[in-house]
Write a structure and sequence with these properties.
about 90 residues, alpha+beta
């Protein structure tokens, strides 16, 4: 996607939003990142988002395990959520 196309799309979105809305992620992140910087390094334009670490706690783990136990999420999702929440690194 070219910068001009991105700007055009953002301007079209801006016309439909009657207030200054926050930018949010498109994944299942409950705490979306904040856009902190936009810069151009030809031929690419980069959007830099702030990473805000969340302090995991026992309640987070308990909620994930309860969701798995009650059939709300599958095992793979529970494992991913635990690794994501508690900062486990991906290893090959």
């Amino acid at each position: 996607m070219k910068t001009s196309e991105l700007i055009r799309k953002l301007q079209e979105i801006d016309k439909t939003v009657p207030f200054d809305a926050p930018i949010v992620g498109s994944d299942d992140d409950w705490m979306p990142p904040t856009l902190t910087r936009v810069y151009h390094d030809p031929p690419r334009t980069h959007l830099v988002f702030e990473h805000v670490p969340v302090e995991p706690d026992k309640d987070s783990l308990r909620e994930i395990l309860n969701n798995y136990k009650n059939g709300i999420i599958p095992l793979e999702h529970a494992v991913y959520s635990i690794c994501d929440t508690f900062g486990a690194a991906d290893e090959d």
